Amino acid sequence: MTIISVSLNDEYTECLDTIQRTYDLKGRSDAIRASIDSAMDEIKKMETLEGPVEGVLIIVRSNHADPWMIQVQAKYQEYIKTQMHSHIRDHKCLEVMVVSCDAEVLKDMISEIKAQRKAEYVRFVRG
């Protein structure tokens, strides 16, 4: 087994401890492994998407004043069939979009959203 040293800020450390407690894991290393497994499951799910796809894209983000989400939506507007924006607690925004496009377009859209590192939650639910 390879040993890797990782530096985490307080927020990530708290998250890691929450993962450990929630899943009753023995230590932080198990929590990191569980997190990697979860991320890999999501990646594999996206990799299997092919051809035309339809579904709901759910995003939770903070900082309503930051225009990055509007720019993403404008770029992919032909694929967004319905969009809802709602203000939720702690000054966060919930974006719900019904999308219909080729899988590669969806993958690009999600990658672009995640690359901004401004969304706390990004999930695609296939219809």
SSE topology sketch:
Elements: H1 10-22, H2 28-47, E1 52-62, H3 68-75, E2 80-88, E3 92-102, H4 103-115, E4 119-126
Antiparallel strand pairs: 1-3, 1-4, 2-3
What does this structure look like?
The chain has helices at residues 10-22, 28-47, 68-75, 103-115, and strands at residues 52-62, 80-88, 92-102, 119-126. It is an alpha+beta fold and 127 residues long.
Summarize the structure.
With 127 residues, the protein is α+β, with helices and mostly antiparallel strands. It has helices spanning 10-22, 28-47, 68-75, 103-115; strands at residues 52-62, 80-88, 92-102, 119-126.
Q: Can you tell me the CATH architecture of the largest domain?
A: 2-Layer Sandwich
> What's the number of helices?
4
Unreliable stretches: none
Secondary-structure element order, N to C: HHEHEEHE
Strand arrangement in the largest pleated sheet: 2-3-1-4
